[in-house]
Amino acid sequence: xxxxxxxxxxxxxxxxxxxxxxxxxxxxxxxxxxxxxxxxxxxxxxxxxxxxxxxxxxxxxxxxxxxxxxxxxxxxxxxxxxxxxxxxxxxxxxxxxxxxxxxxxxxxxxxxxxxxxxxxxxxxxxxxxxxxxxxxxxxxxxxxxxxxxxxxxxxxxxxxxxxxxxxxxxxxxxxxxxxxxxxxxxxxxxxxxxxxxxxxxxxxxxx
Length: 207
Hints:
Structural class: mainly alpha
CATH architecture of the largest domain: Orthogonal Bundle
Number of helices: 12
Strand content: under 5%
Order of helices and strands: HHHHHHHHHHHH
CATH topology of the largest domain: Tetracycline Repressor, domain 2
Number of domains: 2
Number of strands: 0
């Protein structure tokens, strides 16, 4: 058995799930693309559902690690913390763009595993975001706005390029997989933070 069989299976599955959808992809399709025996998939993941769960869990474990790393610098200030979180999450998603695209699409479907993720990973994510924004408002670094609406905007900014890659490439002619786009878009995320979230220093001092 090849040493990197698991990785080959995951990469093949993500590519096919993106192209044909989860339901439109069979174990045989994955085995053929990965150039391995279908029995290897059973050995590592039991079945296609197990492979799906592995992909989702692997993505969110890495995602939460980046989120927690950014959150750890909250004592330096809410603005710096939010910028660091945005950079870490953006880089993480860009570095595995195909998996990100698949996971975010899958999270829009009401399934048992999605509900489990909502009550575990996303609940922790909400706590971290809420804490950072709440501290920013209390310290007058951030505008006093409803936190849930700010979270909707922040999540949307971070996810839209991966959920609408065809629109971006075919209509807007920008390419999320290119480093140029990733760098420019991160700049726009920071412009949003500075322009919408952060209270100008002059206004902060006047309070």
